[in-house]
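Record 1 of the preview.
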Amino acid sequence: MSFHPIMREGTDEELQGFIDIWASWIVLSEENTEAMGDLSTADSFVALYNRHVNTVYRVCYTYLRKAADTEDAVQNVFIKLLTKPMSFVSEEHEKAWLIRVATNHCKDVLKSAWMRRADFESIPEPAAVDKEHDETLEEVLKLPENQRICVYLYYYEGYSTAEIAEIIKRPHSTVRNYLSDARKQLRERLAGIFDE
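->
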């Protein structure tokens, strides 16, 4: 299942341009280059970006629910990676860090005064974006925020409830309750769709 039609891997030229722009703003001392570890080269950043861009996109989309806002958030998450050098132990560590940063960034966006005042629901999506019709995804996106992110991380990314608890900084039992409540709501809402 495709989460959103806009998702795609960046070309090497696009990513190199992105890196060049931000590298001109970042002064990499010897300390920063060491702290960046494998991310000190464009090729390693491109590989990391291609490995995790869809995951970061999906996490942001579950919070923001608008393609343009999601794309901005994804860009900001990877900018944070470039501007705050990190050394990762494994690909799972990279993924967990990016999900945590994406989650925090999206929460900040939703708390911003601009998002609270603007009535974006009345603005239609651009006609050029042809979304796939998926009743299950529509119902998942209608869930409360905490349930929505837990469902995404559990079913789409394959995280355990203990890992989700660590990522969203909630007790393990709370995550299990979110998932249980979400399953119950989805079962009720989708009963008619799957019975047909």
